[in-house]
Amino acid sequence: MASFNVYFILVALFVMSGAVIATEEADIIKKYDCENETKMGQYCIMEIFTSIFKIGDVTDKCCGELMVLGKICHAALVKRTLQLPQFKNMEESKIVAKSIQIWNKCAVVTKSVSPSPSP
Ligand SMILES: *[C@@H]1O[C@H](CO)[C@@H](O)[C@H](O)[C@H]1NC(C)=O
C-alpha cells in the first residue's frame, strides 16, 4: 500500500534527523520551554526563521515576541535548525551572525517604544 510506504519513509527520516541533532540544544530548548507557543506564536516563528535563513524583515510585533522568547532560546533554536539535514549546507557562521544581528536590531526596536506609528 502506497500510504504505508510514505508513512514509513517519514518515520525513518524523523528518526534519522533526531539522531543527528545534538542533545545540547535539545536540552536547552526543553529546559527553557523554548517551543512554548505562549512565548512566540507560529506566525513570528516563521517570520524570524525566514529572516534568518532566507531574507526579509522582522516586524516590531515579532521583535517583541523574540524578546519574550529570550536570547538563549533564540540561539538554541537557530543552532538546532542548522543541524537538520536540510540546512547542513548553510554556512553556520553566516547564519549565526545573522541571527545575532536580528536579535540586536530587535533589542533596539523594542527598547525605543515610541507612540508614533510608522506609515
Ligand atoms: C507554556 O507556558 C505557560 C506559561 O508559563 C504554561 O502554563 C504552559 O503549561 C506551557 N505549555 C507547555 C506546553 O509547556
TrEMBL record:
Alphabetized InterPro entries for the sequence: Prolamin-like
Any Pfam family the entry gives: Prolamin_like
Domain Prolamin-like: start-end pairs: 33-106
Keyword terms of this UniProt record: Signal
Signal peptide (from-to): 1-22
PANTHER family (alphabetical): BIFUNCTIONAL INHIBITOR/LIPID-TRANSFER PROTEIN/SEED STORAGE 2S ALBUMIN SUPERFAMILY PROTEIN-RELATED, ECA1 GAMETOGENESIS RELATED FAMILY
Record-given protein name: Protein DOWN-REGULATED IN DIF1 11-like
Name of the encoding gene: LOC111291593
